[in-house]
């Protein structure tokens, strides 16, 4: 009964759900992956069904086995409309999954700037850290996404924030052999002398990686006068 109820949510037929509920279905019952009927309604943009479920007590912030809420899923699928619906009905915009990531982390990871902007405008903490101590701008740097990084900086992201390894976005750009991203970050205020937990600056990392990719070591010879450790 409960399994039929869960999967019927994707068909946007509230009357069918009402039938199962009247016969004892648990509105917050989960399948083997920890997903509820509300999850499927949100995933399939079944607004009428989602509203029906909420009105009957569905937990909008329920998590699956990955710790993801429906808002994480909306961000993953770049569905601004679904995110808007969820937040307007009480979804926690800063809820974290098992990796400590919020919906904003997910949107940025996929370079979904419009969805990211919506989340920020509705209270997403732009400097929230995941389990690795990474903020959204760390992820943008990992993805070599200049456009996303620029967007985040314009909305108040801390460009010199450190993760659990003590790495800033500039360390990450160096690690990923991205000269363009490194130049962009420096032009927007990244501290070239910032050290990670091993006492290494971005230039240390760039030189190490240059053994395999020489082009990166030139990333800031224009800025070399600013480096204190070389």
From TrEMBL:
InterPro entries reported in the protein's UniProt record: Ankyrin_rpt, Ankyrin_rpt-contain_sf
One Pfam family from the record: Ank_4
The keyword Transferase is assigned to this record: no
Keywords: ANK repeat, Repeat
Ranges: ANK repeats: 33-65, 66-98, 99-131, 132-164, 165-197
Record-given protein name: Ankyrin repeat protein, putative
Organism: Trichomonas vaginalis (strain ATCC PRA-98 / G3)
Lineage of source species: Eukaryota, Metamonada, Parabasalia, Trichomonadida, Trichomonadidae
């Amino acid at each position: 009964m409960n399994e039929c109820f869960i999967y019927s949510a994707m068909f946007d037929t509230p009357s069918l759900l009402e039938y199962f509920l009247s016969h004892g279905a648990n509105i917050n019952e989960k399948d083997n992956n920890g997903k509820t009927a509300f999850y499927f309604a949100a995933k399939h943009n079944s607004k009428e069904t989602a509203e029906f479920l909420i009105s009957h007590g569905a937990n909008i912030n329920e998590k699956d086995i990955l710790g993801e809420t429906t808002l994480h899923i909306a961000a993953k699928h770049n569905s601004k409309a679904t995110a808007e619906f969820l937040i307007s009905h009480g979804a926690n915009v800063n809820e974290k999954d098992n990796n400590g990531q919020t919906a904003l982390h997910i949107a940025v990871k996929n370079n979904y700037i419009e969805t990211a902007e919506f989340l920020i405008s509705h209270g997403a903490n732009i400097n929230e850290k995941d389990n690795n101590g990474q903020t959204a701008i760390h992820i943008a740097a990992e993805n070599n996404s200049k456009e996303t990084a620029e967007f985040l900086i314009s909305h108040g992201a801390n460009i010199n924030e450190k993760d659990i390894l003590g790495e800033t976005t500039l360390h990450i750009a160096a690690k990923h052999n991205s000269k363009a991203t490194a130049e962009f970050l420096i032009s927007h205020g990244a501290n070239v002398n910032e050290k990670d937990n091993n006492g290494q600056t971005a230039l240390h990392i760039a030189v190490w990686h240059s053994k395999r990719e020489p082009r990166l070591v030139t990333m800031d010879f224009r800025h070399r006068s600013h480096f204190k450790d070389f």
